[in-house]
Design a protein that fits this description.
Layout: E1 7-9, E2 18-23, H1 25-28, E3 38-41, E4 51-55, H2 66-80, E5 84-87, H3 104-110, E6 122-124, H4 128-131, H5 135-139, H6 141-146, E7 150-152, E8 156-160, E9 165-171
Parallel strand pairs: 1-4, 3-8, 4-5, 5-6, 6-7
Antiparallel strand pairs: 2-9, 8-9
Bound molecules: 2-acetamido-2-deoxy-beta-D-glucopyranose.
Length: about 170
């Protein structure tokens, strides 16, 4: 984690198609490619700290203990007072979504991560399982209308205060 970050918990392993980095601002000067990425602003807490959860490989309609992990994420999220959640991909098993009207979106996301502490922005990238289905559906703003937490962009940067953290999301597919 970057300097100034207070805490982070990692409930699940990262998807190997998503590459994630939290970099100190100093690093930014050396990453010209990042200049072309969409940038989102996420203000840190008043005290200048940031807490987040990172999860990957999760969408199982509650099975494979997804619901139990979600429950624990809710508890930890409450304790840490998290600011947002990062998903490193493989959001919907086995084969992504069939389209923006796929009920797996609600069954694996909206209806699972119901804890109050998890009602924060989720910044997501796609994994290889997501590409087996309609990848564009997950990138579509239509899903954000159904559940405003779901912020899935192909590659982007989340800027969490100039001196706290920048999170780079690179989709290498
Ligand atoms: C769910 O978690 C329990 C307890 O850790 C474990 O015994 C069980 O095998 C898990 N089930 C699945 C389907 O992974």
């Amino acid at each position: 984690m970057a300097q100034g970050s207070r805490s982070a918990a990692v409930p699940a392993a990262a998807s190997f198609f998503a590459l994630l980095a939290v970099a100190a601002p100093l690093l930014l000067c050396c990453a010209p490619a990042a200049a072309e990425l969409a940038r989102l602003e996420h203000p840190p807490k008043d005290g200048g700290s940031l807490s987040l959860l990172v999860v990957g490989d999760w969408g199982r309609k509650g099975t494979f203990n997804q619901s139990r992990v979600a429950h624990q994420m809710g508890r930890v999220g409450e304790q840490l007072s998290i600011d947002f959640v990062i998903s490193t991909g493989d959001n919907f098993y086995e084969n992504g979504l069939t389209g923006t009207d796929d009920e797996a979106f609600e069954q694996s996301f909206t209806d699972i991560y119901t804890a109050k502490s998890l009602q924060k922005p989720w910044y997501l990238v796609l994994g290889n399982h997501d590409y087996r289905g309609d990848a564009l559906a997950q990138l579509s703003p239509v899903l954000r209308k159904i559940d405003s937490r779901f912020i899935c962009i192909k590659s982007f940067v989340v800027n969490a205060g100039s001196k706290i953290a920048r999170v780079f999301f690179f989709d290498l597919d």
